[in-house]
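User: Let's play a game. I give you a shape written as tokens, and you guess the letters that built it. Ready? Here's round one.
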């Protein structure tokens, strides 16, 4: 934390210091140090500063940008993403970070709610732009491609204009008087259900977002590998922003590659990397090699790491310190596993409660609402009992809400929680605090389901299934069954290469480790498990498709207690279930 305070003192002369001030300080301190590594290119802090100056002048002249105008960027990880962000910051313009996987209606929704009138895109995504271009042009949107040549379709080239512009510094007056609460970036939720929401992150939030990285031992001598998308807060604000804070080097890759990951680490002398969700599991599932421990990685920073993978990863790839944390892009709840306790996301202590007070409260999954006492207040969950994680909304720990979506913002706020007048942010996540005060992620509210009067946590079932030797990936969810209360378990799985499905082996595993209400009744085999750009699994479409063998082309299996195996699912079994001839 000492490094953060040192930089903060250095920019104290600024009327409203922000991320840009920290970057400019690093340019003055270490102009020739490599800031961005990308493919076989190295860009120094000075290089990126000058390029962002050129971009700012070009956008001011050609797009007529002025302070407060929002610009959307639609691109994969590359140096241009960084210097465009800095250029917009120099002009006092917020940036909307569009997920490069969105298309048509979802694209237009995300673009419009940011209020942007300018779009900057990579030519590689031209097909996606073409689908919505008539609508954009009709609404007066200026579309710029990161190219030197125009496509003569109403869009504009940007690189040629940037290269023709001055490298002179941008006057601070262009961005003066921007209040700390003004939006700096818009980061979108993954949109696993419905349209994505745009979290409006303020100048202050972006400035302090590096706190996560500073809790590690990242220094200016490190090379931090960011295989995560920059359109997400983890890559942009924790990774890139963290590098800016300490003057470190950042290695970018367009998209995460499990086959090239360790080669990249060795080639670029990586000393730290970020992870999210299943990345470490993917790495553990690769064939073992003699050089698995031949690298210079000291630590990794991320979230969503399960205990079994934690152990396997460290045993196989060496004594890499794993810094697990918990936090939502738009939320005010933050936890950090400073003691490196396997599987934990943090620890409940008096200091954290003072800085960012949070609670775990009893939650009724069937009614999808908190359990209340006779006074109408929430009830704290007991130690060891899963409950809803909520964080208190106070002036020092605000919830900034969603752009253009007041109703969604209000839905995330609980009022009069523990006493009259208090307000808490609803994380939407279930957590457990053990007797020692360690906090563990349990499941998401939308993922947990009830069957036979019991709550089933999908993450716990997935942990068991992934120990079966032929299962590479899995996605567990509950599907409705006619004439039955709740939802019954179903698992979509991907089989490992050179392996085959074994119904008896899978049955033995679930029978040994899971209670009967948690055992997946249906297994669906897929060629791939669809995930978002940040490796969150899509469940809603699978839930809607259910377990009808006539409607699903993928192979399916049914848990048959009589033969103690998973047998091929067929129309006869399906009809017996519908006609209540088969007991579930």
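Assistant: Ready! My guess for every position:
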């Amino acid at each position: 934390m000492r490094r953060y305070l040192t930089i903060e003192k250095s920019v104290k002369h600024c009327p409203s210091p922000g991320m840009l001030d920290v970057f400019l300080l690093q340019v003055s301190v270490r102009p020739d140090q490599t800031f961005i590594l990308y493919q076989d290119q190295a860009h120094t802090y000075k290089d990126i500063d000058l390029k962002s100056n050129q971009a700012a002048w070009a956008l001011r002249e050609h797009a007529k940008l002025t302070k407060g105008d929002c610009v959307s960027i639609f691109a994969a990880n590359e140096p241009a993403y960084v210097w465009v962000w800095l250029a917009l910051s120099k002009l006092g313009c917020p940036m909307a970070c569009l997920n490069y996987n969105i298309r048509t209606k979802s694209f237009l929704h995300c673009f419009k709610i940011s209020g942007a009138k300018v779009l900057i895109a990579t030519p590689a995504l031209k097909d996606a732009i073409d689908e919505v271009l008539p609508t954009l042009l009709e609404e007066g949107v200026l579309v710029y491609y990161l190219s030197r040549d125009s496509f003569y379709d109403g869009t504009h080239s940007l690189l040629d204009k940037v290269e023709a512009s001055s490298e002179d510094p941008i006057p601070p007056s262009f961005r003066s008087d921007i209040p700390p609460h003004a939006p700096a970036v818009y980061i979108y939720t993954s949109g696993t259900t419905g349209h994505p929401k745009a979290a409006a992150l303020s100048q202050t939030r972006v400035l302090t977002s590096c706190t996560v990285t500073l809790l590690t031992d990242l220094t200016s001598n490190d090379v931090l590998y960011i295989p995560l998308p920059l359109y997400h807060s983890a890559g942009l604000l924790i990774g890139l922003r963290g590098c800016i804070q300490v003057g470190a080097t950042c290695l970018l890759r367009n998209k995460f590659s499990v086959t090239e990951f360790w080669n990249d680490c060795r080639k670029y002398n990586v000393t730290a990397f970020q992870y999210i969700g299943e990345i470490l599991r993917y790495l553990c599932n690769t064939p073992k090699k003699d050089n698995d421990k031949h690298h210079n990685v000291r630590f990794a920073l991320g979230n969503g790491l399960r205990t079994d993978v934690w152990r396997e990863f460290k045993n196989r790839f060496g004594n890499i310190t794993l810094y697990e944390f918990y936090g939502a892009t738009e939320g005010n709840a933050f936890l950090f596993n400073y003691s490196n306790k396997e599987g934990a996301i943090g620890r409940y202590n008096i200091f954290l409660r003072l800085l960012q007070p949070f609670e775990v409260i009893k939650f009724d999954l069937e009614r999808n609402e908190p359990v209340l006492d006779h006074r109408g207040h929430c009830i704290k969950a007991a130690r060891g009992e899963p409950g809803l994680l909520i964080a208190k909304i106070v002036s020092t720990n605000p919830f900034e809400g969603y752009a253009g979506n007041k109703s969604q913002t209000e839905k995330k706020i609980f009022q009069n929680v523990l006493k009259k007048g208090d307000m808490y942010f609803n994380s939407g996540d279930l957590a457990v605090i053990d007797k020692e005060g360690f906090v563990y992620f349990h499941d998401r509210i939308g993922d947990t389901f009830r069957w036979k009067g019991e709550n089933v946590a999908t993450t716990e079932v997935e942990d068991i299934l992934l120990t079966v030797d032929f299962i590479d990936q899995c996605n567990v969810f509950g599907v409705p069954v006619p004439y039955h209360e709740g939802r019954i378990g179903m698992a979509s799985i991907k089989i490992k290469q050179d392996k085959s499905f074994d119904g008896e082996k899978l049955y033995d595993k679930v029978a040994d480790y899971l209670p009967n209400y948690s055992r997946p009744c249906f297994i669906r085999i897929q060629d791939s498990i669809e995930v978002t750009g940040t490796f969150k699994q899509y469940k809603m479409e699978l839930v809607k498709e259910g377990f009808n063998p006539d409607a699903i082309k993928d192979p399916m299996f049914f848990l048959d207690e009589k033969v103690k195996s998973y047998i091929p699912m067929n129309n006869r079994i399906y009809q017996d279930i519908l006609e209540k001839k088969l007991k579930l």
